[in-house]
Write a sequence for this structure.
C-alpha cells in the first residue's frame, strides 16, 4: 500500500528557507516584490492570486496586483506591462494566462522582461529551460513537481521517468527538468500507442494530460512514484486529478493527491523565483 | 538484412523543390541570400562552408562568407553581426560555432536577428522548436533527421522513438521535432541505466552521443529504423558514426550511413531555411 505525499510539507520547507533569504535581503534594505498582472476577474485566477498574496505575506515579501479591464486593448496592455517592467521596485512579474482574445500572447511574450519573468512566459526563459541554464525561470508547476521529488528524496539519476502530456506549461518543461536531473525521460501523449505499457515502465510517472482519473493502476509499476498535475472536476462536482489515486495506491510507492498535492507548492515556487530574480537584479 | 538509407536522395529531393521556389522568387525580382559568418579558418568549418556554397549555387540562390579574424574582439564581432542583421540583401545567417574563447556565445546569441537565424542560435528559435511554432528555425542537423524519416516514409505517429544524447544541437531539438510528429519520445544519455534495453524498444532510434560505433545490435529492435548523427574518427583514421552499422544491419530495417547519411542533408536544410526566411521577410 503506497503513501500519499502531500505538497504542504514541501511548501513549508521552501517558505522556511525563503523567510531567511528575505531577512537577509531586508538587512540590505531590499524587499523582494512580486507584481501579479490580472486581466478581468476569472474565479480561478482570483483563487490562485489569494494564495500567492498570502504566501508572499507569510514570507515577508511584497506583492501587488495590477487588475486590468477584461476588454483592455493590446496596446494598452503592452503599455501597462512595460510600466511594470521598468518599475525598479518590482522584481518578479506573473501574468495570468490565457488572456482574453483581443490580446495576442505571441506578441506579448516578447514584451515581458525576461529577468522578471518568474513563470516562464518569455521565450528567453523557455530556451533557458531547454538549455539547462539556471539563470532562467522554469514555469512554477513543473518546478513544483521537481521540488516534491527532491523533498521526498526520490532518486532520479538514471531512473526512468515517464511524463504524460506535452503541454508548454507542464509536459515539455518538466521533461527538460527531469532530464537535467539525469533521469531517462519518455514523453507520452494522446497519440501514444499502448500507453499503459509505456507508463508501467516508469520509476517516476508525472501526469498532466487534463483527463479526470485517467491513470489507473494498469499504468503504474509496482513501487513507482506518481505525481499528479491534473486539476479536473469529477462527476460529483469534486476536484480531482488525472490519476485515480485510490486504485493506483495498490501499486505505487508514493502518490501526490489532488487537491493538496502539486498545487499546494506552486505559490512557494512563485515566491522563490521572485526572490531569486531580486537577488540576480541586485547582484547578490 | 537491413537497408542502408543514404542522405543524397533526400538532399536531391529537397534541392529540386527549392530550385522551383527560387525560380518563383526570382520572377518577383527576389534572390534569397545566405550569409555565413566564420571566425578563423577551422578545417571542418571550411569543409562545411564549401558544401553549403556549392548547394546554394546549385539551387540558384546567393551565398557569401564573412571571414573574421580568429582574434576578433567581442565588440567587433557584435558590430559585424549587427551589420549583417541589418543588411536587407541577406535573408539567412549561419554562424559557425563554437567560437574562439574571447567571444561569449551567451551574449552573442541574443544579437542575431531571430528572423534570419536559420540554424537556431537565437533563444527565440530555441523556444519556437519547443513550442512547435513553425515560424521558427530548428537547427539544421535535427531537421535533416526529420527530412530523412519523412523521405523514407518511416511512420512516426504513436511510434516509439528513442533519442540517444541530449545536446542542444541534436538530442533535445530532435526530441521536440519527433514529438511534433506525434511519436512517443524517450531521451537517453550517459547516465541512463541499461541503455541497450531502453533503445531496444525503439521503432526509431536516433543517435547523437559522440562515441564511435557505440551502438551495436544489442541496442536495436528487429525492424527498427536507425538514424546515426555521430561524426567520429575510428581506430584506422576513417570517419565513422556512433552506430556500428555492419553489426546493426542484422536487425535494423534501415540505417543511415556515416559518411553519406544525415551529414549529406544539412546543407539542403540550410538552403531551405534561408528560402523560408526570405519568403517570410517578403511576406510571400
Amino acid at each position: 500500500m503506497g503513501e500519499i505525499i502531500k505538497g504542504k510539507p514541501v511548501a513549508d520547507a521552501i517558505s522556511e528557507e525563503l523567510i531567511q533569504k528575505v531577512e537577509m535581503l531586508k538587512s540590505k534594505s531590499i524587499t523582494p516584490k512580486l507584481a501579479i498582472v490580472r486581466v478581468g476577474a476569472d474565479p480561478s485566477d482570483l483563487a490562485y492570486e489569494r494564495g500567492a498574496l498570502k504566501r508572499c505575506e507569510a514570507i515577508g515579501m511584497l506583492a501587488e496586483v495590477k487588475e486590468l479591464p477584461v476588454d483592455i486593448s493590446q496596446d494598452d496592455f503592452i503599455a501597462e506591462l512595460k510600466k511594470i517592467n521598468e518599475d525598479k521596485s518590482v522584481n518578479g512579474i506573473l501574468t495570468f494566462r490565457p488572456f482574453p482574445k483581443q490580446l495576442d500572447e505571441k506578441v506579448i511574450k516578447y514584451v515581458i522582461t525576461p529577468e522578471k519573468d518568474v513563470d516562464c512566459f518569455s521565450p528567453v526563459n523557455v530556451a533557458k529551460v531547454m538549455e539547462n541554464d539556471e539563470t532562467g525561470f522554469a514555469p512554477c508547476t513543473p518546478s513544483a513537481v521537481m521540488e516534491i521529488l527532491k523533498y521526498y528524496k526520490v532518486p532520479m539519476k538514471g531512473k526512468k521517468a515517464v511524463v504524460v502530456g506535452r503541454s508548454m506549461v507542464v509536459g515539455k518543461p518538466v521533461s527538460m527538468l527531469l532530464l537535467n536531473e539525469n533521469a531517462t525521460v519518455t514523453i507520452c501523449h494522446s497519440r501514444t500507442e499502448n500507453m499503459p505499457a509505456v507508463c508501467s515502465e516508469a520509476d517516476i510517472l508525472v501526469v498532466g494530460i487534463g483527463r479526470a482519473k485517467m491513470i489507473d493502476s494498469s499504468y503504474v509499476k509496482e513501487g513507482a512514484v506518481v505525481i499528479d498535475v491534473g486539476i479536473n472536476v469529477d462527476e460529483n462536482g469534486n476536484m480531482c486529478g488525472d490519476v485515480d489515486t485510490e486504485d493506483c495506491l495498490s501499486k505505487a510507492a508514493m502518490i501526490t493527491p489532488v487537491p493538496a498535492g502539486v498545487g499546494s507548492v506552486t505559490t512557494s515556487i512563485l515566491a522563490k523565483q521572485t526572490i531569486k530574480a531580486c537577488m540576480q537584479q541586485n547582484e547578490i
